[in-house]
Please model this.
Amino acid sequence: MSDRTILSIDPGTSKCGLALVRRNTDSKIELIWRKIAPLESLVEVVDQATAETKIDLLVIGSGTGSRRIIESLRENRAGLNILVVDEKDTSLQARERYWEHHPRRGLRRLLPATLQVPPDPVDDFVALILAERVLQV
Model:
């Protein structure tokens, strides 16, 4: 898969993590943006992303609330290709990724990252990991 742009969604009950990711011709994965959006504004965020760039594939994690989100997107945005991906271990990986982007300071540096809960939601990092899984295949 080269020159592919993926919008990835980590579904939740009240909010969703999103990541817009591109794999370029050099096979490098480029993060365009990531964000967390309330569930009720998900369709608008998808619309903004599709207006910004051509989305080749919409990746949705198979976790909480995925069925409802898939149905909503199929009803409202029928032209999008949707792939459902297993979310196994993504939450733990997202915590680690959070600490890579937000280095720990003070006493937090002494504890392993795997034992710490980030102070912010990591749903956007989960979405990024889901996109990377698809692009690395």
The longest strand covers residues 29-38. The radius of gyration is 15 Å.
